Amino acid sequence: MNKLAEVIHSRSNPDLPGELLPPDAEIDRYLELFGAQLLGVVPFNQRYRLRNEAAFHLERLRDDLIAEGHDRREAVRRAIVAYGPAEQLAEQYIKSWFEKSAGGVLAKRLGKGNAIAFVAFALAELICVGLFYGRIFVPVESVFRYTVDPTVFPASTLNAVPIPDSSLFFAVLATVVLVAPILAGAWVGAKVPIHPMRAVYHGLLPCILYSFVSGVLVLPSRELLLFALVQLVYWLPVSLAVAHFARLHVRALRIGKELSE
To answer: How many domains, the chain?
Structure first.
């Protein structure tokens, strides 16, 4: 990340202060900062096109202000202020560029980032819930039998299946529950270049609600209720942090690759 910080710093801080630069050089500095925000996220040909679009709009704003009677330096300053901060503009362009590549009904309805996160966490949810149910219902010759006598469920719902236990099955279950948010968060961070933490929140929240409702409605309730709690206090913060750092890491790798070419 030091390399990323150096690139953005160097592009946004030329040798001369703004008041000593030629008027149009202020636009060039703005465009350099704008391009630096896209570096490592948007491919070069797309960055070039977006930079040219921003330059066209800025120059048109400048020319309109000059026609209104402002001197060139003031016109450039006002045009930049009217166009908005370079970081904000870059964020809008990245979001637009990313969402344009969305394919499928789910991505178009939820947004591409939210859809990626939902698929990642829904898959993790499916695996974990399947393992939870596997501790209760075991298939034998195409017929399901109960590992616990169903007649004791109403009287001992909270003690239907011991938690934890020393079985290999429970060890596998615990490992999956611990590792799943790390893998899902890393996947989202690597695939979603804009607001991956927001996508994680939107993708994971339905899974938490599903676990909670299932825990209330499906026996034995303790397992899925505890799972919902684990998702809330462990999955959510861990996946948010992993997604954030995964995005930064992937971007730094892409920047390093571009600078080395």
So the answer is: 2
